[in-house]
């Protein structure tokens, strides 16, 4: 099983859109995919479920908030497997043996984050608790009931708090969506530095606090930066965008050759409801679907096979 987080603490860069479409296309190619929405804004959840449906069927019993609650002992034992749902309309568009499942989010996740960060004393006890919380998602994803999944894709919120950190620690790979502008490209370098710092700290803490003797060393790799909302001229990114894409490559980070073009009307409309763009067969701009498919191929090529067995 691969675990991949889609991250960038810059907001509105296409994280949720990339997560939904990558997941949908992988499922359409026969993979069993689990999406996890870790963003209290719940955009990924609402791209698959109607808000009324979410309120009636998911809000109280089946969101990732319950699992984070259980980490603090606020709720009885909850496993991730208890929370999985299968969005109907998206799965109706998936042919063959693939499947697209979801662990939904909840607006209350924002309070969890604050509580997790605040709920422990300072000093040694605080460090040990932070280590436990940061590693909790990684441990939980090893539940046997999740074994059938080939791929877990985690949609992260636009921040670097402890919930996001737990996703990074659980991941084999990271995908970084970005817009081709000055602030986004500046942010990628900074984000990468913070990821490295977190991972080093976590592995050092493992030597101090881990209760198992041979602790698995965490080392998420960057699968790639994907540029989104690109403007095209004669089928190529406009010069301004090209410049920022080249600057990012110069940082030494992998950048997916395929960038996603801007198409506000296609991406903004969730019609038919709950079906990601890549699965919509009657698309007015087939090139949009083609580039999402091509990105998926490039994504699979960039995953390290040896990590999958770890
Ligand atoms: N290629 C695109 N062209 C046009 N609009 C897009 C494209 N990709 C995403 N969008 C739109 O841009 C907005 C932000 O996208 P999205 O929600 O995927 O970003 P995000 O990084 O997850 O945001 P947040 O940080 O708030 O979670 C959404 O309204 C989405 O529909
Ligand atoms: Mg989002």
UniProtKB/TrEMBL annotation:
Pfam families: AAA_31 (PF13614). Residues 2-205 form the AAA domain. InterPro entries: AAA_dom, DNA_Partitioning_ATPase, P-loop_NTPase. It comes from the Bacteria. PANTHER family: COBYRINIC ACID AC-DIAMIDE SYNTHASE, P-LOOP CONTAINING NUCLEOSIDE TRIPHOSPHATE HYDROLASE. This is Cobyrinic acid a,c-diamide synthase. The lineage of its organism: Bacteria, Bacillati, Actinomycetota, Actinomycetes, Micromonosporales.
